[in-house]
Amino acid sequence: MFLAGRHAEAPQEALQVLDIVLRELPSARYAPFGRSFFSPDLGRRQPLGDGLESWRGFYQSIRPTQMGLSLNIDMSATAFIEPLPVIDYAAQLLRSDIHSRPLSDAERVKIKKALRGVKVEVTHRGNMRRKYRISGLTTQATRELTFPVDEGGTVKSVVQYFQETYGFAIQHTYLPCLQVGNQQRPNYLPMEVCKIVEGQRYSKRLNQNQIRALLDETCQYPRDRERDITQMVKHNAYQEDPYAKEFGIKISDCLASVDARILPAPRLKYNETGREKDCIPRVGQWNMMNKKMVNGGKVRSWMCVNFARNVPDKLARDFCHQLAQMCQDSGMDFALEPVLPPMSARPDQVERALKARYHEAMNILGPQRRELDLLIGILPDNNGSLYGDLKRVCEIDLGIVSQCCCTKQVFKLNKQIYANIALKINVKVGGRNTVLVDALSRRIPLVTDRPTIIFGADVTHPHPGEDSSPSIAAVVASQDWPEVTRYAGLVSAQAHRQELIEDLYKVRQDPQKGPVSSGMIRELLISFKKSTGEKPQRIIFYRDGVSEGQFYQVLLFELNAIRKPVLPWRQTTNHR
Hints:
This protein is α+β, with helices and mostly antiparallel strands and 576 residues long. The chain is 31% helix and 24% strand. Residues 374-564 form the Piwi domain.
């Protein structure tokens, strides 16, 4: 009925059946993860560093479209643990040769965390490659380990056991053993007799270098991506799939042809005081040359803290001065001199340094009844947790706007980089960089004809393995109309890996008034009313990150949560 156009909604259960049918053959051929399939035979394996490598693969799912049912195929890549001898893997992870020295406690803990749950196969028993899953790492070196061999209390060392039982002389006796099996009856395996089993996907968080290497591997020009997808479809030979044949499914080898049109680039409005008052982007690009922000924000007091050891104080001062000059030239009310000269600080003391410097600045600003408007942080290019720590201290503990800059940006001293950073700062301090000419002339359908608020919502989930971490829901909403360029945002912690946004609508108990409705939607509607002086008469809600299986559940729950705070507003207006 759906394919014949007699039913509006796609039958999810039927689509799920067809999806399972088409997944059966690739599941037998390749390593399946989610809706994707990976294999070292589908493309080159690229090292990502620290004992990881990337495997190429493809994404596959059945989708209902205007043309009927379509099979959606795309290229993908993910990280796998390299099938290395365990000692070589540990050496890569530590970035140090461990073949001739014992491990420190910190190194042992790092290896233990990385290897817990990983499958290994033993290499000391010839063709008998028995597999084990690692449960931990011993605190003692191999040469110190003993275990009971009978109920009479006789003990034997691991070194002696391997020599007598397998004729294998353990060389690296100063290294710890891998623990396999349960804690009650531990089984010790020397690291040198173990090799990581191939085909284990790495599901933990990648570091910045690994992410960069994975992106370099997957970034393609559209024509190259099209070529690879077409080759993948031919390689999979869907026409010969026995399961698809059994269910009467036929799949074309050709890409679907879709009628499309190229939308014209929107004309952007800038401040009247600039030499160029508007512009049309070319190929998705434009710059601030000869232009001024349509509404420049105010930064009367600011300071800089430098956490990059290779950036000297003079360079930090020059960078800050040039950035301040660019902000001023772009139309912001920006003080050229900081409250305090830029200060260098150690990355491992970010909280102490920021709070100490903030109190120094407030000793100067406090008597003048002024606040600190902005903190500029100069960070190393590979900064680990430093960025998150700085944001947490500035936004949660100190309540100040921050702008981070990487070392490579500081060394370039490039006007384009200054302009890009200035645009970020202006938005953060309440300014507007540009607005759409069509918005000012009320020519955007469904937005400019009546007061309209635009929402955007997403939920960020913790990485696999972070079992106790909450998911974070974020909702933003436009605060100006008809321009819809300024947004307010709210975040809320909720249950682990919960996709439904729980705090869109809440009822709290007020001691005097009793039950009172609240929640993120209500707060943002009230904020829109205060900002524009208008009640929104139309809501446009963008929701990101919902899987096909959860879509209708999320739609029903969240649509209901959006309607509840809106009902009292509709009773006081003639508009629907």
